[in-house]
Amino acid sequence: DNPLGKPIENKAQHILIVYLSRTNNTRAVAQMIQKKTGGEMTAIELQDPYPENYQEIVAQVAEENETGFLPPLQTKINNLDHYDTVFIGFPTWGMQLPPPIKSFLTTNNLSGKTVIPFNTNAGYGLGSTIKTINKLCSDSKVLEAFSVEGGIERDGILFVMEGEKAEQVEEKLDDWLTKIDF
Ligand SMILES: Cc1cc2nc3c(=O)[nH]c(=O)nc-3n(C[C@H](O)[C@H](O)[C@H](O)COP(=O)(O)O)c2cc1C
C-alpha cells in the first residue's frame, strides 16, 4: 500500500553487475550474484576481441600490461547514474587486473558508488587486481572482494562452475554477501 503515491525504493534496481569472462567461469559467478541480488547484468565486450589461442592471448595481455594499453570497449553503460552499487567481475590475468577492466574503470566514473569486486582464477589468487581497483576507484567505496578458483586454461581446463563445484561456490558466495553487507 502506497497512499501518497511515492516511488517505492527498490534496491535491486540500483545494482549493476558488470563482468569480463572468456571461458564463462566469472560469468557463472555473475549469474549467481544476479540471482541473489536481482541486479542488472552486463558483459564487458571489446571492439577487437582477443585471440582464441591461449598462448596468443597471454602474450597480448602481457604486452598491454607492459605498455599500459587500454583496449577500447564495445560495451557502453547508458544509465550509469542510475546505479549506486556496481559489482565488477574479472578473471586474474597475468596476476593483474585484465586490461578491459582497466578500460572500463577508466572510462566510467564510479565515484560515490559502492564497488564490489569478484574474481575467478586458476589457483594463484587475486594478485595486484584489488590494488589497481582501489587506485582506479579512489572516490568509490570498494568492499571486500570475492575470489574463487575457476578454470586452468593453460592445462585445458575451461568451464568448471557446474555440479558440486557450483554448489560450493554458491555457499561461499552466500557467506560473503552476508558479510560485506552492501
Ligand atoms: C590471459 C590469461 C592469463 C591468466 N593468468 C592467470 C594468472 O596470472 N593467475 C591465475 O591464477 N590464473 C590465470 N588465468 C586463468 C584464469 O584466471 C581462470 O581460468 C579464470 O577462472 C578464467 O575466468 P573466465 O572463465 O571467466 O574467463 C589466466 C587466464 C588467461 C586467459
TrEMBL record:
Among the GO molecular function terms of this UniProt record, one is: FMN binding
Q: What are the entry keywords?
A: Signal
The yes or no answer to whether the keyword Aminoacyl-tRNA synthetase is present is: no
Q: Which SUPFAM superfamilies match?
A: Flavoproteins
| Listed InterPro entries | Flavodoxin/NO_synth (IPR008254), Flavoprotein-like_sf (IPR029039)
- Would I find Cell cycle among this entry's keywords? no
Q: Where is the Flavodoxin-like domain?
A: 15-181
This protein is called Flavodoxin
Lineage of the organism: Bacteria, Pseudomonadati, Bacteroidota, Flavobacteriia, Flavobacteriales
